[in-house]
Write a structure and sequence with these properties.
153 residues; alpha+beta; 60s Ribosomal Protein L30, Chain: A; two-stranded antiparallel sheet; globular
Length: 153
Amino acid sequence: MIVESKLNELGIVLSDPLKPLGKYKPAIRTGEWVYVSGMVSLQDGKFKFKGKVGRDLTLEQGYEAARISGINALAALKSVIGDLDKVQQIVKVVGYVNSTEDFTKHPQVVDGASELFAQVFGEKGIAARCAVGTTGLPGDSPVEIDMIVEIKE
């Protein structure tokens, strides 16, 4: 329960995974791989932040939204593997940033999730990554995070 202890230290409590907004599962395990669907920045059933980074939100607020999306991704992951200590490596993280056309600091926003994963898992939490700007996300979420995780038994 090393990861759970780390989450407790950080003051993070994982809730049930977000309910799908369409016909998909929050996460699917196949063999030693878990694919986590895109998780938006809902917290306690509502958005703490909404809108476009660079217009409605600051970089710092976008970073916090990415952290919330990352917490939701961890909840989805835990729902299919039970024990987060089974994580061998977070392999790939993709972050989508709802931003203005001229906003270019997508990597710094997505760091909200990436730095969370590194805090929780150490080196195992540092993944290959893509940070993409987009014109909109479900519910006007500022960020959506998905990931691929290798697990061990």
